[in-house]
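>> received
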Amino acid sequence: MDEMTSRLDIREVVERWVVWRDAGDWDRFAQVWHADGYMTATWFQGGFRDFIAVSRHGFEAGVRILHFLGGSAIDVAGNRAIAQTKMTINQRAVVHGVEVDVVCTGRFYDFFAHRDGKWAITRRQPIYERDRMDPVDPAASLALDPAMLGRFPYGYRHLAYLQTELGFDVKPGLPELTGDAVSRLYAEGSAWLGGSATPGTPP
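>> returned
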């Protein structure tokens, strides 16, 4: 298995994840995962099949969470790999009567395995680096509750604020740019490349 070919195949999976999920192409979206694939997000933690089910339900109800990709850094070790890909998460909703956009910048940190002739994801863990919230109408005025905003981690506090307003149960303690959670994630990634039995322990 040529390493450059593996890198290209992995990047294609990363891109397909974004395109097919955001388009609601659920049958093809299922193809980017291995059978034991696990997804962590601010609002969801669990197996990929359940992730597809709840994402599909939200999509059909009008929830729009969109993603854009940047560069990737991919480490390959035999039939395993770790891919880090710069990304943004974009969500539009109404907060305190004002339509807003939240943009969260971070990275997808993906545990990959080559099985049954293909590279696919065994675990996806976003890293949340920085976010912001802006009214869609620049003339609109929006005041957030500072106590509520302060409850959430810095890297995804505006995203968490919006999602909490929508009724989601947002998980604290997810990896940010620095801190114990991201250090633990990096250690799990190194262990995965070194042959660990599982792709870490998702939060």
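>> Residues 3-23 form the longest helix (21 residues).
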